[in-house]
Design goal:
With about 350 residues, the protein is mainly β. Helices cover about 10% and strands about 15% of the residues. The strands form four sheets. A four-stranded mixed beta sheet has the order 9-8-7-10.
Length: about 350
């Protein structure tokens, strides 16, 4: 099935930066403020250009490495926070997917007791388990939503500067539209995450912890039972807790996965792989192409998520890297998935 590529429109909007960037870290520099003033507070200019997208060294879905070009854009310096999402909900009365009644017809065979509004929550196991069975650590918990990220009896009080979680793709897009922004494409996100270090393993360079310094909120130890907390965080961390990358962007690795606007296909199309020139601003727009035929929930489109999370560990999910990617059903929300927004074009004008 063919993928469809185009370039989206742009907008302008608001946002705030809670934490200043950490300078002085080897290989990481403050990003450019860009041409003119940013279209909203707390956005950094990503100059665009040509880069090598993907990796040959880790997971099959990251292959092949191919040269891609993207135009410049403004990007939120940090993930959208609980406090920012709260302002959006207060202004609009928006109700997230995790808070809405479920349609039983969409989930044939599901336990009727679970057909209530809720979301997926991670629970550490008591010891080593079969890593092929994600039900060992993921539970659908009715009553869980962005205000109550760990379950109905736990609130987000004190987590205002943490990334908002339990947001489905539709929720992220609704916020972005309200703010006059857009979600990034996969190519835009990956280019931004690299921070000018084309081909590097991590957003900050080649070494996971240069000089012993933890550079992102990930899982240290044996997942899903032994978290050594070397980075100081068991769950999500406040945005800006770790150094920014070369474009002044925080948490482009770890903390929480991030939604993109691209639908998921396992490999880029032959057109993209073998183009005579580097594709410019590629985007996968076919929801049909993203369906996982023969798998549970095969009728639900999937989007690309990027960046890894605090639950990514070397023994299970070494995906806190720019090239890493994974599919996520558009109706699904979890405790380790959030988003950030962009505005395309210098000064917020259209990229087309």
């Amino acid at each position: 099935m063919a993928e469809h590529y185009d370039v989206s429109s742009t907008g302008t909007g608001g946002g705030t930066l809670a934490h200043p960037p950490a300078d002085g870290v080897s290989g990481v520099q403050r990003g450019s403020r860009g041409p003119g003033r940013p279209p909203a507070a707390g956005m950094s200019w990503v100059p665009g250009g040509s880069f090598l997208m993907g990796s040959e060294d880790f997971y099959p879905e990251e292959r092949p490495v191919r040269r891609v070009e993207v135009d410049g854009f403004w990007m939120d310096e940090h993930l959208v926070t609980v406090a920012e999402f709260r302002r959006f909900v207060a202004a609009t009365g928006y109700v997230t997917v995790a808070e809405r009644p479920l349609d039983a017809a969409q989930y044939p065979g599901a336990d009727p007791a679970l057909l209530r509004p809720g979301s997926l929550v991670f629970h550490a196991t008591g010891g080593p388990v079969d890593l092929r069975d994600v039900t060992q650590w993921w539970r659908y918990v009715p009553g869980t939503e962005w205000r109550r990220p760990l379950g109905p009896r736990a609130s987000a009080k004190g987590l205002g500067e943490h990334p908002v979680t339990h947001v489905a793709a539709e929720d992220a897009e609704a916020y972005a539209a309200w703010a006059g922004k857009r979600l990034p494409t996969e190519a835009e996100w990956e280019f931004a995450a690299r921070g000018g270090l084309d081909g590097a393993v991590f957003t900050w360079g080649e070494e996971f912890a240069p000089g012993g310094q933890m550079m992102a909120n990930t899982w240290q130890g044996e997942f899903p039972w032994q978290n050594l907390l070397a980075d100081g965080f068991e769950g999500t961390s406040p945005v800006g807790s770790f150094p920014a990358n070369g474009y002044g962007l925080f948490d482009m690795a770890g903390n929480v996965w991030e939604w993109t606007s691209d639908y998921y296909v396992a490999r880029p199309s032959a057109e993209v792989q073998h183009a005579c020139c580097a594709p410019r601003n590629p985007r996968v727009t076919s929801a049909q192409a993203s369906l996982a035929h023969g798998e549970p929930g095969a009728h639900i489109p999937r989007r690309v998520t990027k960046g890894g999370s605090h639950l990514c560990a070397p023994n299970y999910c070494l995906r806190y890297r720019p090239a890493a990617r994974q599919p996520q059903a558009v109706d699904t929300s979890t405790c380790h998935l959030g988003f950030r927004c962009i505005v395309r074009g210098a000064g917020g004008g259209p990229a087309e």
